[in-house]
Amino acid sequence: MPPYKMRERGRPALIYASKHGYADFVRLILQRTEIEINLQDRGGKSALLVATKKGHIDVVRLLLEREDINTSLKDGKGYTALLCASHNGHQEIGNDGDPALMCAALAVHTDIVRLLLGRAEINTSLKNKKDDTALSIAIEERHTEIINLLKEHEQALQAKENETTASAGTEVSETAPATSVPPSDKTIHPTR
């Protein structure tokens, strides 16, 4: 069996290497065209999610370089990579029986949040099974820097949306022909 397809306790090689921070091995695996980057293990964890949980920023960077990475994948508990990076605390025991996982230091997760927010398709409004968003988790955990990053991202998106809406409205009013309704010769009276 080729090394990029090897499994450890039911985990594909990419997920295993990502979980343990083996950036060189991840880089090697990602060179294979047939690699399914969004593959999930039995607990629903993807390579991006496990690298984020463990705070392996070099691996997260490598994974985010791939355009086909799905940043919205959820694990069995409804966590995405962004939700996990915003949590920065003890994770409950996973579905596969692993011991409790602990997210890396706040500085590492802040950097990972920055990387994730740099992706155009990142969805900050996704919720886990407890109905938490990345922002609500960061607020609950009192991670001020992550709270600020998420709020700035939302404000930037809102400003861009407002700008797009305003420019679309301007284009319509500039290009739309003026319409006038000629006065009617007949007066319509309601019938009784």
UniProtKB/TrEMBL annotation:
GO cellular component, one term: cytoskeleton
Taxonomic superkingdom: Eukaryota
Keywords carried by this UniProt record: ANK repeat
GO-annotated biological processes: negative regulation of actin filament polymerization
ANK repeat extents: 43-66
Signal sequence annotation: none
PROSITE patterns referenced in this protein's UniProt entry, alphabetically: ANK_REP_REGION (PS50297), ANK_REPEAT (PS50088)
Ranges of biased composition (kind: Polar residues): 164-182
Listed PANTHER family: KANK, ISOFORM D (PTHR24168:SF21), KN MOTIF AND ANKYRIN REPEAT DOMAIN-CONTAINING (PTHR24168)
Protein name: Similar to Ankyrin repeat domain-containing protein 29 acc. no. Q8N6D5
Organism taxonomic ancestry: Eukaryota, Fungi, Dikarya, Ascomycota, Pezizomycotina
